[in-house]
Amino acid sequence: MDLPIFFADYFGTRTLVGIIAIIHVWINHAFAVGMIPLVVGVEWWAHRTGRQEWDALAHKILGVCFIVTTTVGALTGVGIWLSTALVNPYAIGSLLRVFYWAWFSEWVVFVAEVSLILVYYLTWKRMTGLRKSRHIRIGVILGLMSWLTMAIIVAILGFMMNPGSWLEQRDLLAGFTNPIYLPQLLFRTAAALTMAGSLALALSLAFTDRDSPLRTQAIKLFSGWSLFWLAPTLIGGLAYHHVIPQAMLNNMPVAFGTQAWQDLYGQLVHFTFLAVVAVALCSLWGLWQPLRTNPLVWIVPVLLLTGLIGYFERTREFIRKPYAIGYYMYANGIRVDEVPYLVKTGVLANCSWTTHRRVTEQNKEAAGRDLFMVLCSRCHTLNGINSVGENLAKMYPDQSTWSPAAIESFLKNIHGARPFMPPFIGTTDERGALAAYLATLGNRRDIPPPVAVAAFNE
Amino acid sequence: MEPVIPKDLPLGLPAPFWLLEFLLLLSFALHILFVNLMLGGSLMVLITEIRGLRMPDWDRISYEIAKTITVNKSLAVVLGVAPLLSISVLYTMQFYTANALTGHVWMLIVPLLIAAFLLSYAHKYSWDRLAHSKGVHLTFAGGATALFLFLPLIFLSNVNLMLYPEHWRSIGSFWDALTLANVLPRYLHFLAASVALTGLFLAVYFGRERFFVSLELQSLRREQLVRSFYGIAFGSTLAQFVLGPLLFLTLPAHTISTTLVVILTVAVLPLGGLAVWWLWREVQATSPGRRLISIVAALTAVISFMVYARHDVRETALAPHRDLMKARTAEYLADVRAAQDYLVMPGGLGGKPLSVGAQLFQRKCASCHALDTRLVGPPLVEAARNYAGNPEGIILWALKPGRNRTDYPPMPAQEMARDDLLQIASHILKTTGNL
Amino acid sequence: MANDLPTEPHDPRWLPSRATAILIGIGIQLLFVAIAVTLIVGSARDTGPLVHALLIPEDLVYPDTDLAPRAGKQQPPIDVRKMAVPTDGQLEKGNLLFAEHCASCHGPSGAGDGPAGIALQPPPRNLTSLSAWKQGARFSDLYRTLTLGLPGTQMPPFDYLGDADRFALAHHVAGLVPERPADTGASLDSLDAEFGLSAGAKEPNIVSLSTAMDRLVAEKTPAAGALSSEREAELSSLEPQGTAVFSQVVHPHQLERVSRLLLADASWRKDSDRLRAIAVDNLPDNGFATRAAMLSRADWSALNRYLTLRFEGE
Q: Which contacts of C8-17 are long-range, i.e. CB under 8 A and separated by 24 or more positions?
């Protein structure tokens, strides 16, 4: 309310954060957290058995990961802060205040991780012979640091869904030990390891010769690795599912299928499990008949797992709605405790950056636009992805029903009708103004208000 | 113009102000050191490679410098996280305001920096392969350098804009923010510092006996090379004696405190002068390197004082604003608490309480169904006709709505306890006369 | 061997056997299961609502809002002489109140050119002119006018504003009047006596405008078709449910209109459905309250019986 509104039409601010964050999660799970243990493991085993070609393969796979994590990985990580500062500064600002020391510690660990990966990768060729053991040890610590950065961040993600006892106690420890934290960490650790396996497999196709024994063994090893971690992923997922608040689980059908296909929720869940089964089958096939297929088949598990983790992130973000921080702050940055005051005195009067401060008959639609920007623009665009016009058109397909009074009636109980929407916050005048503005997004016709809309109480 | 006084977040600072300040300044100093080396290094790579077109020795040197960029850039980015964290906590509203006002370009940091890094990698790893296509190869270097030269402007425009709440309303974009006094001088000052520090760094890097020998250069001697790097450091540090005062003179008067003037005149100028003098002597020396420790000490002191001076400017500019914010926030939070105390729940003073069915209907159904008008769904007087005396039918429909009328949008399933649904169904039937 | 350091690239010191590897693998799987089970068993799913306290603006009624009904407060005694001297605070308040309550008719500067006053007869006066003040333009006169209104004109009494507000407004308007006619000690005393200011007055009860209107109309207009109280009691005992329903859907001031409607078309007698059709046909213009649309079938039957009794023989 007191910050200028960064509005991204067409694309939408959700999309901005979503794309950056999903790329970051994909990279840090598959290329770092999951991959380092795998690479170190292969290096160790190559050292013990004297298989130089495995050592070389591990080094090459690490090279790809090194380049990706130190460029796209690192920058999308910072990019999450940069974009959330624009999209929901109140939420990220609050999270930073609560979790400052957690993020500070994570930064220290992150510095260690980056330094170690620089050393680990750049000294690979040089630390041979006697120094190999030390090199492997560097890798082990690197893997630990990598996991630790994820372990700290996941606490914050869990907090956003359900702050747990922090709502009363307001200290870091309470926030850190929120109910979502450990189950989600269990799930992500296993998922990262699974993803790394399929990625390593796909990468090794580029670094091994066709039909060579090395390729055969690589496919077998990495398939086995993926398969091994698939069950823990599902077990972790089960634990995670168990701690999600029921009210948020109720948002799953729309999270999965959007409003258009929420009725297909059952089918979409089946499809998700099928995708997981497909990954398992590919892994089994890799163990059994590594060379019998077109190498392109091995891209499939990578794509499936990438799609799954991406969809998981979207779902996780959606079911938390209407909250940015569960039970504390709505997605538009307004806190739950501010609502009574704002409902009485008005949202516009308490904003510093809107053009209008109160609603009058003359400025109704313009004030409504201001209200849209403050209350709705974090998730909705005017044109493009998830535009309000598109959503309203689904409810009022006939232009004769698209009237300010009908829309206002919807706004009045919007949370009841759509649990993932925050309740309308503002005075009755402001509600009318917003409805007037939204009505202009359709057909501009003066439609008389429906009779007996309000009087329906005993 | 009237400054905007935003209300602050109601959450307190996670540590004492001075501690957060200290962490901010320390982490920022480390970050900016590596940013300087990254930018300066990129410039030097480009210049030396161009020089190397005539003299192969310089091409070799260019390659070695490129290898340092790999490390320096990663450290620059990772060290940037802490100052970003601290500044977002200490100056939340001011910093985020500046971010929002320059938002479209602020977001470009991510793709542009990724592009710069990838270009640097491409440049380094394709050195041998593109040995005979120097044009293409130089484009990589040029691209990376151009990006590294542009990106600091994005950061500078933000940290500058955040200092002037009285200008916020007149700045609508990154380009506007660049026109605020002080951005360009800051940029030039920073650029000169990058070149100076990189020169010094490379003097040390290439001054290592064993390393230089391993390069197997044809015509350049070690002392010669080291001297030229010292020369670069000297030249750009000397330039700071023009760019520094230019920066000072373009500072708005209200941001200058006595502390600042004292630091600059008593500490920075003399120490900087000493550093320049010693650098000059190194350039003259036949065997440069003796004064290295002194130079490093002097420059470290200068940089430390400058980092503090920079912070002093910020504090002088924002401390009054922060006080105003604090007062406004306290007032607001008191009002918010008072509003909660006065809350009177549904019904109001003297109002009759609604029945449970009516309340539930109000919450869950009323936004789409009115009594005898079409809203989103059909009017109840129409829909309830089919369920006269049959509340069970309404319940079944609500749990799993079919699609009887295609002139209406599909009704979403209403997952509710059966008891609640029964209350609503009875309420509907009662009020539409279909009991 | 010197220091037991191997010279070959590989060191066959230890490599887990296949069995060990399998055991480790199973161990890891079981560890995940154990952790997951601990986490699941150790937590209960949150089954609370998504939004705990849902507020819509209509839910909020604040005690000191202008139009919320409340009993009048007892007013402390006021020193009229003191009140007659304007303070900065009062002038500022008066300015705000004028903008809120008066400017719509009298115009923002009091010149009588407000948009809401255009169609009024007589038009809102020009407060910046000294001529023809019906009740005088001194501070005491202004307070009186604000409290009582001007009968015969559209200037209503503003007695629902507190004393302090009316004093502030009076000061503001006094500042608009040229050559400021001044009060004397005597005029202030008579103001005091009239409104019992130094004794402390009771502020009038505040009711919402619609209730006030209803009551006013009911008081002023003899209700055509009204029954004597004996007849009312009789009907009430004969048909209690119908009486109750009737009182809910027909307000006293609509009695005449409803009577005319029901007497014009007699098809409703003995036929509740027909009664309903007539009543719901043109709500609320036909005199029935909108809540008539919410009556149940049984209610309509009862109402029909009641009305049949009431309009017996008509």
A: C8/A50, C9/A47, C9/A50, C9/A52, C9/A128, C9/A129, C9/A132, C10/A47, C10/A48, C10/A49, C10/A50, C10/A51, C11/A47, C11/A48, C11/A133, C12/A48, C13/A48, C14/A48, C15/A48, C15/A49
